[in-house]
Design a protein that fits this description.
single chain; mainly beta; Alpha-Beta Plaits; 6-stranded antiparallel beta sheet; 2 helices
Length: 123
């Protein structure tokens, strides 16, 4: 026979309502407990690499990320404004939306192997 468990209340505590914890400004996560959707970082290989522009790039260089409308492209540019390559990633649309709202991103060059250039895109 199984026991009835005795008298009294439920042994499980009631869940507490979530509390928004303020996050200090300047730590990159947002303000007031809200996560900033534009804090994006992603490692990706550049597509449609411009071999001429790539010759002037070295591992460790920090390049600009830009959105070019019509047809829409997310590109990486060198200091002279030459397009080094294009970014296609799962976060492509989010990067574009954030750039259009005023955010800026850079691409750290992680590796170059022939025509393959791997970058880390970050704010």
């Amino acid at each position: 026979m199984s026991g009835g468990g005795g008298g009294g209340g439920d042994w499980r505590p009631e869940p507490k309502a979530p509390v928004a914890v303020p996050i200090p400004a300047g730590d990159g996560t947002g303000v007031g407990g809200i996560i900033d959707p534009c804090i994006l970082e992603e490692v990706t290989s550049l597509n449609s690499v411009n071999q001429v522009a790539l010759r002037g790039i070295r591992v460790g260089d920090v390049l600009a990320v830009a959105f070019i409308p019509g047809p829409p492209r997310l590109v990486v540019q060198d200091n002279a404004g030459n397009i080094v390559g294009a970014i296609t990633s799962p976060s492509y649309l989010q990067f574009i939306a954030c750039i259009q709202s005023g955010r800026h991103y850079v691409a750290d060059v992680l590796s170059i192997n022939g025509g393959l250039c791997v970058v880390k895109v970050r704010p």
